[in-house]
User: Fold this.
Amino acid sequence: MNATFKISSKVNLFFTEVGDVTFFAIRFFKQVFTRPFETKEFLRQCYLMGNRSLLLVGVTGFILGLVFTLQSRPTLMEFGAQSWMPSMISISIVREIGPVITALICAGRIGSGIGAELGSMRVTEQIDAMEVSGTNPFKYLVVTRILATTLMLPLLIIFGDAIALVGSAIVENLKGAVSFQLYFNQVFEALAFSDIIPATVKSFFFGFAIGLIGCYKGYNCNKGTVGVGEASNAAVVYTSMLLFVIDFIAVFVSDIFFEI
Assistant:
């Protein structure tokens, strides 16, 4: 009986949280098109989330391209299919590996940062002070950050994919004496719009999820300074889980769409 009660309470808590996040998202869509538009804060957040994440995304993408090519090459060589390496690597990275890995990296860096920043503002009553002074804290803090993550994540993913392909090309050049021109010619021949468009579209949803969960956890933070750490941690965990759900839905829908 005790176990049943615990399970039911956790299920109720889960659905309550889903409802709260949904209302939080609806509030965002209501305010995103209303004046005043916080353009300066939006551009500042784009710089903080985009420019300052370039190095991390670039290093991650480069290592991803190196490792993925080094691990795949021996298997393809057993079947005499090493000439398929550029096609296989490019399709795998652009379709799936690049967007997911980059989104998870950004969830750890950007999502936790948003949760901690807004959480500290909540527990130190800065958000309450903004409300008293007549400023709309939701518009200034939440809307700008969600828009920034939604816009910047696709750009970061494109950048990470490009660096990953460069890393793969370096391995092929050293191991198989494949020129960079030949490698990238095969890459662009292998890629089609059916590979690029779904990956780009779902990256916008990845960015929206990172911003939404991070802002929700930080904006509704409580329990003092302990709550700030909990909000930051929960933002990363929940966002990572949501990214896999979004990715599954995106792959399922794109397969149906492009099959038709």
